[in-house]
């Protein structure tokens, strides 16, 4: 249970807030690169309204959406050469936020543009995602997770949740919900399969990557990988279970779910995708009914049901919530560290230690390279995978399938 003040301190993400300052020490994935289909796109991240664009040299820019001249919407701007030109009076800003042209002003005040800057943040494209860093310089490195290099067919699933990010991330360290929200609720809705077993034991521990949580099912063995290896609550805002889900704070009451999947393919040859495809899973059917059939959708609808901002002054925590308590304590501790001028945990700065960084991964042996995993996402994990994508995954798999020697 938290007081109303503590709850606010835990959940605020804006610039100048304690947790907002902590989150700004990490690169945040905020868009699938495939979503940038126009020259500009308006985005909102950590409570800031921004515009992402790609200049003539292919460099990404992320600048404040409100033009520094008189506030016109820069997402309407036109990309020209190395800049984004405001449609109102033609001022032009480069990816670093420098004002590189003031068409009329240059006659009377040729150097005035040098005094104007748009707020701008660095952007890196990695693993089919655009990542932004909204913190103080020098920017650290975007983590080079080992799973980004897995051979397979990658896809990105997106969702928008009208609620605060912390309640989404608390779900990343909550083993018991898996049994109830996913297994038992699916069973209650008529999904087939073996009836789920209850949890017999759970454990949590801190790790350099955040936290690991472990579980043993009733009748299970202490040698099961879900106990010996466990699952990863990835600091500061993701869950890694062989695929990765980031809970990206849009603002205090909106979160973007970015889920990154790799469908294993036969063979060791890399499978090159010019663009990793992305699609959005909805939270509700067109008639307003919540979507309750798939794992991500069950999570989403539950987070939304907790309210825009879960009221932690009314909760009753139990043994199963030990991980949630650890996560909150760590967030407060690390926010204080940043406020005191320190460097928080899990920031990558040394390139030698940021190469294919591996994370604990239970159940890897079950991720068969036989194409079924593609269907598994569509049938079990996220509602609404486009049919063309499913058939493309199947096509690629059959092209690469191991052939019997004659
Ligand atoms: S408001 Fe953008 S150039 Fe005037
Ligand atoms: Fe879940």
Structural summary, described in words:
This protein has 406 residues and is α+β, with helices and mostly antiparallel strands. It folds into two domains: 106 residues, 3-layer Sandwich (Rieske Iron-sulfur Protein); 255 residues, Naphthalene 1,2-dioxygenase Alpha Subunit, Chain A, domain 1. The protein is 23% helix and 25% strand. The chain has ten helices and 19 strands. An eight-stranded mixed sheet has the order 13-14-15-16-17-18-12-19. The longest helix has 18 residues. The N and C termini lie far apart (66 Å). The site of fe (ii) ion (FE2) has 7 residues, from helix 5 and helix 7.
Q: Count of DSSP E strands?
A: 19
Major sheet attributes? 8 strands, mixed
Write down the overall geometry.
globular
Order of strands, widest sheet: 13-14-15-16-17-18-12-19
Ends apart, CA distance between termini: 66 Å
Top-tier CATH class of the largest domain: Alpha Beta
H/E element string?
A: HHEEEEEEEEHEEEEHHEEHEEEEEHHHH
Strand content: 15-25%
Class of secondary structure makeup:
alpha+beta
């Amino acid at each position: 249970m938290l007081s109303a003040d503590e709850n606010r301190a835990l959940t605020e993400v804006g610039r100048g807030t304690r947790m907002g300052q902590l989150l700004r020490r990490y690169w945040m994935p905020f868009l699938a690169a495939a979503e940038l289909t126009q020259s500009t796109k308006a985005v909102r991240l950590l409570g800031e309204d921004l515009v992402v664009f790609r200049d003539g040299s292919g460099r990404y820019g992320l600048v404040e959406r409100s033009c520094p001249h008189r506030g016109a919407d820069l997402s309407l701007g036109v990309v020209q050469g190395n800049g984004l030109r405001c449609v109102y009076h033609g001022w032009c800003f480069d990816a670093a936020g420098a004002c590189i042209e003031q068409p009329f002003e240059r006659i009377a005040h040729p150097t005035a543009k040098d005094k104007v800057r748009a707020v701008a943040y660095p952007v890196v494209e990695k693993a089919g995602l655009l990542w932004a860093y909204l913190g103080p310089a020098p920017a650290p490195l975007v983590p080079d997770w080992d799973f980004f290099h897995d051979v397979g067919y990658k896809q990105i699933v997106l969702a928008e949740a009208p609620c605060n990010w912390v309640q989404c991330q608390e779900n990343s360290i909550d083993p018991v919900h898996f049994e109830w929200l996913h297994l038992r609720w699916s069973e209650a809705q008529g999904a087939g399969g073996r009836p789920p077993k209850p949890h017999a034991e759970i454990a949590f521990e801190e790790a350099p990557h955040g936290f690991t949580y472990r579980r043993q099912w009733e009748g299970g063995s202490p040698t099961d990988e879900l106990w010996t290896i466990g699952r990863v609550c990835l600091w500061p805002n993701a869950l890694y279970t062989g695929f990765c889900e980031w809970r990206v704070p849009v603002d205090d009451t909106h979160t973007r779910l970015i889920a990154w999947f790799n469908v294993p393919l036969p063979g060791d040859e890399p499978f090159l995708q010019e663009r990793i495809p992305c699609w959005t899973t909805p939270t509700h059917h067109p008639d307003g009914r919540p979507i309750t059939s798939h794992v991500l959708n069950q999570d989403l609808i539950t987070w939304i049901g907790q309210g825009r901002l879960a009221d932690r002054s009314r909760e009753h925590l139990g043994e199963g919530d030990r991980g949630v308590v650890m996560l909150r304590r760590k967030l407060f501790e690390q926010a204080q560290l940043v406020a005191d001028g320190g460097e928080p945990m899990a920031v990558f700065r040394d390139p030698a230690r940021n190469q294919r960084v591996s994370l604990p991964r239970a159940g890897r042996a079950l991720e068969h390279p036989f194409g079924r995993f593609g269907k598994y996402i569509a049938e079990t994990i996220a509602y609404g995978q486009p049919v063309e994508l499913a058939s493309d995954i199947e096509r690629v798999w059959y092209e690469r399938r191991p052939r019997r020697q004659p």
